[in-house]
DNA sequence: CGGCTGGTTGAGTCGTGTCAACTGCGGTGG
DNA sequence: CCACCGCAGTTGACACGACTCAACCAGCCG
């Protein structure tokens, strides 16, 4: 609880396009996104970029660099927002005081990585249309969880260039895939607002399996939480 | 120490092709690979497979499923070997007794994920030749660490079909890329033995950056290890 | 009003996949 | 010991998906 309160204190406003940290920077802190979207990225020698992960409100940024001395990827804001940084030391304190929360933190980090792993699968083995559909559907599910989907509509502040960098495709091809998805009646779009007329059909087309987004914890975690006197997640 | 000794007790022989667990199986244990190679994989609807990670002796298998109730990927042995399973409960005991080892375990899991993330980058943005070169070079570095490279030569027990499943390419194209690499004098191969005449050139061609394989821990970890009376990693 | 950024569309190229035939090797059984 | 089978790898022909380049369009902001 103390940690959560501390977090609120350190809240910081950030603006669209702002770089939270660069590749190769020293690793000293992590962030919780409170408002706005962010993404982590890698710049390549040939000038192209690979976006690794898109962070929505509630996500923790930087866990991927835990235990490294250098950042393996940069992080930038997509739109204006608020982040709450916290330090290594705070995390270590947590480890010392609550095995239950430790397990919870790890579970969160693992879940984030599961999304990356899933993308590896569909980037490696699916068509461009499926990749885009899969990514859109994932965002839809994640937004729905934090209550950011209203009547099936949600907003996607990513440019098609950025979508291409997420999915390993060219911006031009993203545009083409959007028109295909529209022609097939799977994805409607006006400005940054998206709407899926038939979410089920979209999920099937993308071969979407939501197991990797499952948020329930195995029963062992609950007994652990009871063993130590602290809040479960 | 007690945990490490327990591990030795549970050592189990496994044979080539043996499935350690299937996708969707219940998550109950993890494994340390003592001998042999293993890989984790996902089977797709269209019949193809994506290999997620190749495990070498010393690697921990299954951390990616930590906190999930179902396995997100299956794991199979590539050749004969020995694995040492351990349970959730043993891991929790560790969390309770040593914050330092907890941080170390997380660091190990994060490093494994870093390899997956790196592959996402080069599968998304590199050519087939670079992908193969990058993967081979990574294996080379990892094998070198555990002393499995002799005079620059090492063995690669993966079939070209499996290499294709790792890199999101067809087996036929893997074969072509091998001949290209040979013609360019970058990779020599006879049976399962590989040799790089000019490792530096290969690394440059693959745009290989070894930051993600860095094994050193930031200084904060060492002070943590001293704070609690237990072995550092 | 003009420039800039993001998106759309078309034409042509190139990388990778697919299918198929063929080779070489290792293991197995007669 | 040899004949056979089967699997892994190689090579070629062809198809197709995605990229590049370029022109064009639509908002948005100065």
Describe the 3D structure:
2 copies of one chain form a homodimer. Chain A is an alpha+beta fold and 233 residues long. The first copy, chain A, folds into 2 domains: 83 residues, Sandwich (Jelly Rolls); 86 residues, Winged helix-like DNA-binding domain superfamily/Winged helix DNA-binding domain (Arc Repressor Mutant, subunit A, Orthogonal Bundle), CATH 1.10.10. Chain A is 43% helix and 21% strand. The first copy, chain A, contains 8 helices and 11 strands. In chain A, the strands form 3 sheets. Chain A has a 4-stranded antiparallel sheet. A 4-stranded antiparallel sheet of chain A has the order 2-7-4-5. In chain A, strand 4 and strand 5 form a beta hairpin. In chain A, helix 3 runs antiparallel to helix 8, helix 4 crosses helix 6 and helix 5 crosses helix 6. The longest helix of chain A has 27 residues. The C terminus of chain A is likely disordered. Chain A binds a DNA duplex (30 and 30 nucleotides) through helix 6.
Largest interface: A-B, 56 and 56 residues
Main sheet of chain A: which strands, in order across? Answer: 1-8-3-6
Count of domains of chain A: 2
The mean pLDDT of chain A is 89
The arrangement of helices and strands of chain A along the chain is: HEEEEEEEEHHHEHHEEHH
Report the top-level CATH class of the largest domain in chain A: Mainly Alpha
Domain HTH crp-type (chains A, B): 126-200
Protein name (chains A, B): Crp/Fnr family transcriptional regulator
GO molecular function, one term (chains A, B): DNA binding
Keywords (chains A, B): DNA-binding, Transcription, Transcription regulation
């Amino acid at each position: 609880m103390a940690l959560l309160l501390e977090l609120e204190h350190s809240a910081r406003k950030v603006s669209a396009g702002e770089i939270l940290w660069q590749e190769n920077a020293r690793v000293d802190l992590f962030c919780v996104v409170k408002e706005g979207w962010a993404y982590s990225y890698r710049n390549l020698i040939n000038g192209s970029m690979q976006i690794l992960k898109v962070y929505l409100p509630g996500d923790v940024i930087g866990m991927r660099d835990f235990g490294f001395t250098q950042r393996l990827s940069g992080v930038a804001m997509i739109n204006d927002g608020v982040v709450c940084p916290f330090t290594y030391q705070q995390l270590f304190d947590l480890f010392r005081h609550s095995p239950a929360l430790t397990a919870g933190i790890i579970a969160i980090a693992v879940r984030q990585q599961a999304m990356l792993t899933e993308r590896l699968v569909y980037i490696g083995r699916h068509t461009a249309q499926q990749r885009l559909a899969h990514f859109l559907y994932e965002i839809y599910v994640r937004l729905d969880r934090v209550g950011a989907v209203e009547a099936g509509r949600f907003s996607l502040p990513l440019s098609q260039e950025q979508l291409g960098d997420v999915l390993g495709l060219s911006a031009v091809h993203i545009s083409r895939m959007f028109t295909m998805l529209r022609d097939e009646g799977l994805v409607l779009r006006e400005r940054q607002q998206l709407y899926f007329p038939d979410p089920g059909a979209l999920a099937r087309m993308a071969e979407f399996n939501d197991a990797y987004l499952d948020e329930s914890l195995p029963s062992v975690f609950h007994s652990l939480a009871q063993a130590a006197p602290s809040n479960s997640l």
